[in-house]
C-alpha cells in the first residue's frame, strides 16, 4: 500500500508532528506506526480506523481509493 505510506507521511508533516507524537496521539505503537509510514507493513482494519480518525480523513483516502480526504 504505497499510497497509504505516502498519505500518512503527508498528513503527519502537515500537522508538523514527529513520528513518535503521531503514534502516541493516534493510539498506535511507535514501531508499528513507523513501519506503516515506511510501507514495510500493512495495518489491520482497527489500525486503519485509528489513523483515519486521528487525521480526520476517510480510510478510502488513506489507501488511495479516493482523492477526497
Index terms:
5 helices; 69 residues; mainly alpha; 0% strand; globular
- Poorly predicted runs are none
Number of helices: 5
- Per DSSP E runs of 2 or more residues, the count of β-strands stands at 0
Strand content: under 5%
Ends: how far apart? 17 Å
Question: What is the residue-averaged pLDDT?
Answer: 96
Q: Which sheet architecture does the biggest sheet show?
A: none
Structure classification:
mainly alpha
Q: Give the proportion of residues in helices.
A: 55-70%
Shape: globular
Cα Rg: 10 Å
N-to-C series of helices and strands: HHHHH
Describe the structure.
There is one protein chain. The protein is 65% helix and 0% strand. With 69 residues, it is an all-alpha fold. The protein starts with a helix and ends in a 7-residue tail after the last helix. The model has no long low-confidence stretch (mean pLDDT 96).
Q: How would you summarize the topology of this molecule?
A:
Layout: H1 2-14, H2 19-26, H3 30-38, H4 45-55, H5 59-62
Helix pairs in contact: 2-3
Short summary:
The chain has 69 residues and is an all-alpha fold.
Amino acid at each position: 500500500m504505497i499510497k497509504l505510506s505516502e498519505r500518512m507521511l503527508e498528513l503527519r508533516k502537515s500537522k508538523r508532528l514527529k513520528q513518535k507524537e503521531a503514534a502516541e496521539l493516534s493510539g498506535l505503537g511507535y514501531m508499528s506506526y513507523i513501519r506503516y509510514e515506511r510501507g514495510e507493513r500493512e495495518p489491520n482494519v482497527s489500525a486503519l480506523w485509528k489513523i483515519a480518525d486521528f487525521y480526520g480523513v476517510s480510510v478510502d483516502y488513506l489507501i488511495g481509493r479516493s482523492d477526497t480526504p
